[in-house]
Specification:
With 102 residues, this protein is an all-beta fold. The chain has no helices and nine strands. A hairpin with a 2-residue loop joins strand 4 (32-42) and strand 5 (45-48). The radius of gyration is 19 Å and the shape is elongated.
Length: 102
């Protein structure tokens, strides 16, 4: 069984037990979070639209962390203009606990 969930204008295909990194969520480590379900596939087939209104996906927050640093380097030729910046994107690691009807 798997589901397609929505979070932050992005869609993710998840199953029970999956660990997914989402854009930073406002939740403590160990807290339960619910996600909007767009599609569910199980032994009875695929359900979409009105058929999945009664479904929810529940996950448990495992960590609040930052991704690997990326280097942003801006350079203008012949102008002696250089700028080096680093960036670490924050994310929330969530383990999907259940996909079930409400």
């Amino acid at each position: 069984m798997y589901a397609v969930i929505e979070n932050g204008s992005k869609q993710y295909k998840v199953a029970v037990g999956d660990v997914v990194d989402f854009e930073k969520l406002d939740a403590e480590v160990g807290a339960k979070v619910e996600f909007n379900v767009l599609l569910v596939s199980d032994e009875n087939g695929i359900k979409v639209a009105k058929e999945v209104e009664g479904f929810k996906a529940v996950g448990e927050v495992e960590a609040q962390a930052k991704a690997k640093k990326i280097i942003v380097y801006k350079y203008k030729a012949k102008k002696n203009e250089r700028k080096k910046q680093g960036h670490r994107q924050p994310y929330t690691r969530v383990k999907i606990v259940e996909i079930a009807a409400k």
